[in-house]
Amino acid sequence: MGIDHPLEDWVRATLPRALGYARALLGDPVAAEDVVQDCYLRLMQHADDYNLPRDGLKILLRAIWNECRDRTIRRRLVHNLGEDSSYPAKPLAERKTPDPLQEVVARELSDRIEEALARLPMVQRAAIVLAALGYSLPEVAEVLGTTYANARVLVHRARKKLQAELEPFLSEAEDEPRE
Amino acid sequence: MNRESKPHSDPLLELLREHLERQEGSLEIEPLATRIIRLSRSQEVRPLRRLSVQGRVKPRSVWVVWALGMVSLLVSVSVLGWLVFNPSNQVQAEQAIRQAEELFQLPLERSYLVEVRPENGNAVEEHPLPIRKMRLWAAGDKFRVEVTGGNFRWAWGRQSDGTVWIAWYPHRGLRIAPDEQGPALRWACELFSLRPEALLSHILAHCRLREDFDARKSHRRIIYAEPRPWSRQTWLRRAIVELDPESKAVLKLTLTRVHKHSAATSMVTFTLIEVRPVEHLRYELEGNLTDPFQILDRHFQPDRRRRILSRLVGPNVDAWFLPKQSKASG
User: Fold this and answer.
1) Do A15 and B33 touch (CB under 8 A)?
2) Which residues of A touch B251 (CB under 8 A)?
3) Which residues of B touch A35 (CB under 8 A)?
4) Residues of A in contact with B29 (CB under 8 A)
């Protein structure tokens, strides 16, 4: 690529997670890219203040959460919508799987998961996504800027709602033999 | 820190993890990574929103043409427009701030997320309050602050007569009269008096305003305020006001303030969360307590009041009261 930048490796290593997280929160790939780019650049301006290779991802996820939340608040104020309508109804990601049948099944599952996520309040969506990505409850609380107890409640509520929505897929998954 | 996600024992979380990781795997990150690194290197970070149109940065060739066009346009506009554009910018920005100010006359209460960050020096630590991020409710000259620490939630506020109250339990609260309030408490009150309602008129009176017209593309109006050269006010170094172009409501207000007794500066950000009709009783101590309640003040169990306060704000409780509760100097 010819770009010699001290944080290049860090950007490339963390970008899939950061972008995936922003897309999961906003549901809009273009807006997600905008948020992620903005957050990276702001963080890299303060690169001397942090140890980015060590702590950067968590700080970045927190910045992305703050920015997504602010955008949603602004949009809600402007359009005066009661619900979080910032999340598009239809998932936008393109997926490629070799087997057509597998593709249909994967797409249906993916659609259902995205629809179920979209119906969650944004803060619950953020909490359950972080939990699913392997973050502990104290880390979820830290990223969302809330208390441990609140993070636990957020994950629990989100989990309960997703459980109800994705029940058929969960039982199917349980029936299938594990690899 | 880039972690590898481990499989969950919980089938739902595992399903979700697989889905998210599939999504991550399908993302084409290279163009964005290159763009971020290039923008970061070129230090063109400040005008990011100008570069970004709906999140897409144009290819380099388009930028070159665009930049050349803009340079020639800027040269001609800057010569002709210097006398006209600057005053007009100031006038338009003033008009927007006045409209926002009028909105504050409505009998509504507003909730802000308040974040205080020291910029240089140790501005926050000088005033040992448990302040980092909190929720502020404000209506007129009254305010109420909700603080969450661990599993414990408490609220404090200031009434119209200057009395500060604290409610930490449904049946118990305390009051601190204006002539009992120590420096830390006065500092906190001063900080929360800086709510947007009170600040807009200060900005209009003392600041030179400049609007960033590019921000309108992203459905916002951003106005930068800096003290006029002859202004005698000393505490405000700069402010950024973000307005909703349709309703003219203040969405975000960022202040850089200079502390009275030191060169330290701190940045305070108010982000509007909610607007609703005023509940006047919520700004009084009694409105935050449940009957039957007990209120501690200078006449009733003053020492216990001090002990309880030390549990809420830490060992530096003395900074909350004037020494020996003598008369305040004002």
Assistant:
1) yes
2) 73-74, 77
3) 55
4) 12, 15-16, 19
Q: Which residue of B has its CA nearest to A59?
A: B1
In terms of average pLDDT, the best of B4-18, B84-98, B183-197 is B4-18
DSSP letter at B321 equals B
List the structure tokens of B114: 């308040």
Dump pLDDT digits (tens) for B205-245. Answer: 888 888 888 877 777 889 999 888 777 777 788 899 998 88
Strands B142-149 and B152-158: antiparallel
Task: Find the CB nearest B37 among A11, A148, A149.
Answer: A11
- The count of residues in chain B is 330
Which pLDDT tens digit goes with each residue over B54-66?
334 445 666 777 7
Contact, A111 vs A117, CB < 8 A?
no
Separation in Å, CA of B196 to nearest CA in chain A? 17
Contact A54 B1 (CB under 8 A): yes
CA distance A100 to chain B (A): 17
> Which letter does DSSP use for residue B117 in this model?
E
CA atoms within 13 A on the CB side of B56: 7
Using a CB-CB distance cutoff of 8 angstroms, which residues of chain A are in contact with residue B22? 95, 106, 110
Query: Which of A104, A134, A119, A106 shows the shortest CA–CA distance to A21?
Result: A134
Interchain pair A44, B40: CB under 8 A: yes
Which of B24, B35, B150 is opposite residue A37, by nearest beta carbon? Answer: B35
**A152, B55 in Cβ contact below 8 A?**
no
| Burial class of residue B146, CB neighbours in 10 A (0-12, 13-18, 19+) | middle
Helix (H, G, I), strand (E, B) or coil at B147: strand
Q: Where are the beta strands (DSSP E) in A14-106?
A: none
- State the virtual CA torsion across B318, B128, B138, B94 in degrees, nearest 10: 130
ipTM, two decimals: 0.77
| Contact assignment for B25 to A34 by CB distance below 8 Å | no
Spatial neighbors of B201 by CB under 8 A, at least 6 apart, are B101
Q: For the whole model, what pTM was predicted?
A: 0.44
DSSP A34-53: HHHHHHHHHHHHTGGGS-HH
Locate the chain B residue with the closest alpha carbon to A130.
B17
